[in-house]
């Protein structure tokens, strides 16, 4: 997705949020922090503004 977005503009911000179990979907574990860090690292190869949420 980051590679595709960069073809439009490297200045498009990308926000990556961590999943947490809540309400009716509690049987799936939260997204590991390491997964978000790896996704940010990959996205930063293409975009200038990559942000993490809920880490």
TrEMBL record:
Q: This protein is called what? A: Radical SAM domain protein
